[in-house]
Design goal:
Layout (H helix, E strand, L loop, with lengths): L11 E6 L6 H12 L4 E7 L4 E6 L6 H10 L7 E6 L5 H12 L4 E6 L4 E6 L6 H10 L6 E6 L4 H31 L17 H13 L3 H12 L5 H21 L13 H25 L1 H8 L4 E6 L2 E6 L8 E4 L8 E12 L1 H4 L5 E4 L3 E2 L4 E2 L4 E7 L5 H14 L5 H34 L5 E2 L11 H15 L2 H21 L2 E3 L2 H8 L3 E5 H5 L5 E7 L5 H11 L6 H12 L9 E5 L3 E6 L2 E6 L1 H7 L4 H12 L3 E7 L2 E9 L6 H10 L3 E5 L4 H11 L3 E3 L7 H10 L4 E5 L5 H6 L2 E5 L12 E3 L5 H35 L4 H4 L1 E2 L2 H20 L21 E2 L7
Parallel strand pairs: 16-30, 18-25, 18-27, 25-26, 26-31, 27-28, 28-29
Antiparallel strand pairs: 1-3, 2-3, 4-6, 4-7, 5-6, 8-9, 8-10, 10-15, 11-12, 11-13, 11-14, 11-15, 17-29, 19-24, 20-21, 21-22, 22-23, 23-24
Helix pairs in contact: 5-6, 5-9, 6-8, 6-9, 7-8, 8-9, 8-14, 9-28, 10-15, 12-15, 13-14, 13-15, 14-26, 14-28, 15-26, 15-28, 16-26, 18-19, 21-23, 22-26, 26-28
């Protein structure tokens, strides 16, 4: 990555994996460390995804600096290493190679040995070995051999599996020891007294059984809390270490020196130490399992990326790694193989399964000239394709990158949760100190009852002193708190929701887009190319007396000869189908929102709408009756005039998409207002809207007026989504509360919209809103549970019910409740995996409506 400071570069979006985070305090620590770096413009860290989404100035900060800052905070940015072999080079050339490689975005460090070995440490999310090879070739070096590669398809999965194995081993150690401790503590009670020997309850034996637990499975909490304190941050590990360490220390003192004044022999909390560790380790193990399931969708997308490609070079068929394919290469794809890169078929025919990229269930027929996407599966025939997008520019790579960025982003609803989680640890420690002080100095003398019992503890509290009682209360407060549930509530659900959406060809550009989509009130569709096919055809040619249809069409074709508008293409296609070959005009001028003007051999022809004819002083009254009739049929009418004299009119029709009416009906069923935005005249727009069951219409809107039309709706207090093609509608998409770019094809990364709908299907708007609503429902459920749990259990642990009930929640029960709380949030989010938006099929039958303008209709 470039580190030069002599020039300012454009901000760069970067997603960096972070390993070792366990709670919301970890997230805040990493965010603070990253935001302190000069050149880091923004940093958003997700606990559930284990990623940091960064916006950086690459001229001021490097990836190595970012990795170092994360390491200094006590965590790790996992890096891959690849080694190449070049002919032995001198020091000058080695320095040149190092500089060139380290300038690449994603490279942390490059080293060149005297024997020609090039070792590169890099971030796999940003760059791959193929790009590194190309960089070496661009320097004039031929890479002859890759010596070793220390990279996995999914480093994140490997790290999670290591965490699962680690906690499973801890569980195997602590479970039998905790069971023996509990048997020893309860040995005097029936029916355990029938078969458990009394010597198992010896305090020194309890100490011997508990010490391996503290030094083994519980050791991780002490080490991580010390690391956190060294960096000036407290996290959940500190709560665990404080609770376990304090209970063990008091038990040790009261076993060895019972007269020391810390509660005596009745205050040996060995069972609390054992069960506390058991339940925390069990919670960590189950959380690691469920978090892995939540990110399964993104891993499935990553697994789609082909590893090998078959190329045709110099007439020879060769096989290379897919990341070494270059733009313009000819790739051969046989039946049953995955397409290695985005490209255009140059020869052959096949049916390609695009379901895992676009969500489309049926294979798409592909022939010469059609586009195919990397990661899709060739089902039948063989074909050759020319590579158009390779490496990180392929549609699949863009999808993976967008999903990763969305999972690392933060929803507005998360701000309160983050604030609470960030201050939670300190607050709980203060509450624990206050609890100890209250019960030690006042509460014990007033309410203590010798017959009081702890849940899952042996016998009554008996003669426990004020210190032991107050200490027990304060430890329980420390253990029962659960900031993890608060911190996980939003990111865990967002992570699952974005994965579900991506598998359906729906890409949210951040958690804020999900929340905004769930709150929408009005959906405004652009007409052409969104609700309609976008490929209009010429249907009617109406010439005035004295002008033949051929003459009218010929002049119209001349006017549209240089036009790029879909209507112009329809006119030209209609002329050519009738055997006409229009010449190039000598002058041409496009009039946005009105039509076109052209000159040929001293004559001027204009083609456009009523506004253009009125400005040119052309009388179209003789054509008005027929124009209105055609417009009532849903056709777009354009008038043609030559040298100020009307020649006639042309009618062009753009048919609605098969699912457009169904999408409008489903959106209305969901309680949303549906509107259509069109540059067409009112009559044509109304006819199209009527056929689709859309009641509200914004008609005759100029391109520059679309954003203003949406602004007027927003000024009425409505939350508005704009659905457009993502290119022509860019200003409107940016103005809307949620911009949805539909049918985006391969330009995903360049789209203006907040939501990208890969397929060209209006029903995906319905699916996007359903997914957003379902995700936010899970977020609210998680937050409600996390907040209610802490609001209820913390006062109970502090003893507010003790004066009334004489019962206490012991530290071990507190640990169980804490683990179940965090686990419930993870399981609730993981349960989203099987959910899918309801895609309804079959013909829609919208009720007949009378289309009407929205308030403050534009351009009528």
């Amino acid at each position: 990555m470039a580190t030069r400071t002599d020039e300012r570069e454009e901000p760069l979006q970067l997603t960096v994996p972070v390993e070792g985070m366990t709670c919301a305090a970890c997230v805040n620590r990493v965010e603070r460390a990253l935001k302190r770096l000069p050149g880091v413009l923004d940093a958003r860290v997700s606990l559930a995804a284990g990623r940091a989404g960064l916006e950086i100035d690459p001229s001021r900060v490097s990836l190595s600096t970012i990795a170092q800052a994360v390491a200094e905070a006590g965590y790790e940015v996992p890096l891959d290493t690849v080694r190449f072999h070049l002919p032995a080079r001198g020091e000058a050339e080695a320095a040149r190679i190092r500089e060139a490689l380290e300038r690449l975005a994603g490279v942390v460090q490059a080293e060149v040995g005297p024997d020609g070995t090039v070792s590169v440490r890099y971030l796999r999310e940003s760059i791959g070995p193929g790009r590194l090879k190309r960089a070496l070739r661009e320097l004039g070096y031929e890479v002859s051999e890759r010596l070793a590669e220390e990279e996995g398809l999914d480093r994140e999965r490997q790290a999670r599996q290591q965490e699962i194995r680690r906690q499973f081993v801890n569980l195997l150690i602590v479970t039998p020891l905790a069971a023996l401790v509990m048997l020893g503590m309860f040995h005097a009670y029936w029916p355990l007294s029938l078969f458990v020997p009394s010597w198992l309850g010896n305090r020194w034996l309890m100490l011997g059984l508990t010490t391996p637990i503290v030094l083994g499975p519980a050791r991780q909490f002490f080490l991580r809390s010390i690391s956190g304190l060294r960096h000036g941050v407290a996290d959940m590990n500190l709560l665990y270490a404080t609770g376990i360490g304090a209970a063990y220390l008091i038990a040790l003192i009261n076993t060895a020196w019972p007269e020391a004044g810390f509660g005596g022999r009745d205050a040996t909390f060995y069972e609390a130490v054992a069960m506390l560790t058991l339940f925390i380790v069990l919670g960590r193990y189950l959380e690691a399992l469920t978090r892995g399931r939540a990110s399964e969708a993104i891993r499935r997308l990553m697994a789609l990326q082909p590893q090998r490609a078959r190329l045709l070079r110099d007439g020879q068929e060769i096989e290379v790694p897919a990341d070494e394919v270059e733009v313009g290469d000819i790739c051969l794809v046989r039946p049953g193989e995955a397409v290695p890169v985005d490209g255009v078929i140059v020869e052959g025919y096949s049916a390609v399964d695009e379901s895992l990229v676009t969500g489309e269930s049926l294979p798409a027929e592909k022939t010469a000239g059609d586009t195919v996407l990397a990661g899709t599966l060739n089902r039948t025939g063989a074909f050759k394709l020319r590579a158009v997008r390779v490496g990180r520019e392929t549609t699949l790579a863009q999808i993976v990158r967008l999903v990763e960025e969305a999972q690392a982003s933060r929803a507005p609803i998360q701000r309160l949760a983050d604030w609470v989680a960030g201050h939670f640890i300190l607050g709980v420690h203060l509450l624990a100190l206050a609890t100890f002080a209250f019960w030690f100095f006042y509460g014990y003398d007033r309410w203590f009852q010798p017959e009081s019992r702890l849940l899952l503890s042996a016998g009554a509290l008996g003669q426990m002193g004020a210190f032991g009682f107050a200490f027990l209360m304060s430890v329980t407060v420390l253990v029962i708190s659960c900031p993890c549930a608060v911190g996980l509530a939003t990111p865990a659900a967002v992570m699952a929701g974005t994965g579900i959406a991506a598998s359906q060809g729906i890409l949210f550009k951040g958690a804020d887009a999900i929340e905004a989509t769930a709150r929408l009130q009005v959906i405004v569709f652009d007409k052409t190319g969104t609700l309609t096919q976008g490929r209009p055809s010429l249907t009617d040619v109406v010439a005035l007396p004295g002008t033949t249809a051929e003459e009218l069409l010929a002049w119209a074709a001349i006017a549209e000869r240089r036009s790029e508008h879909p209507l112009g293409e329809a006119v030209l296609t209609g002329a050519r189908e009738r055997g006409l070959q229009p010449p190039e005009p000598q002058e041409f001028r496009a009039l946005p929102g009105q039509g076109v003007e052209a000159r040929l051999d001293g004559r001027t022809v204009i083609l456009g709408n009523r506004r253009l004819m009125a400005e040119a002083g052309v009388d179209i009254l003789p054509l008005e009756e027929q124009a209105q009739r055609l417009e009532e049929e849903g056709k777009t009418v354009v008038f043609v005039a030559l040298d100020g004299r009307p020649l006639g009119l042309l009618a062009v029709a753009d048919t609605p998409k098969p699912t457009a009416a169904q999408a409008a009906a489903e959106l209305r069923r969901m309680g949303l207002q549906v509107a259509m935005l069109s540059g067409d005249n009112w009559r044509t727009a109304r006819a199209i809207a009527r056929s689709l069951g859309i009641e509200q219409v914004l008609a005759e809107v100029l391109p520059q007026g679309k954003a203003e039309a949406l602004r007027q709706l927003q000024e009425q207090g409505l939350r508005v989504a704009m659905v457009g093609d993502g290119i022509n509608d860019a200003p409107a998409l940016a103005q809307a509360d949620v911009g949805m770019a539909i049918g985006s094809g391969t330009d995903i990364a360049k789209e203006t919209g907040h939501v990208i709908l890969v397929r060209d299907d209006p029903l995906d708007v319905v699916a996007a809103i359903e997914t957003a609503r379902f995700t936010m429902k899970k977020v609210r459920e998680n937050l409600a549970w996390a907040f209610v749990y802490n609001l209820v259990t913390l006062p109970v642990a502090a003893g507010v019910l003790y004066p009334l009930t004489g019962r206490m929640v012991g530290p071990e029960v507190a640990a169980l409740l804490m683990a179940l709380s965090s686990l419930s949030v993870s399981l609730n989010s993981a349960s989203m995996r099987g959910w899918r938006p309801r895609r309804r099929s079959g013909p829609a039958s919208p009720a007949p409506v009378a289309p009407r303008p929205l308030p403050q209709e534009v351009g009528r």
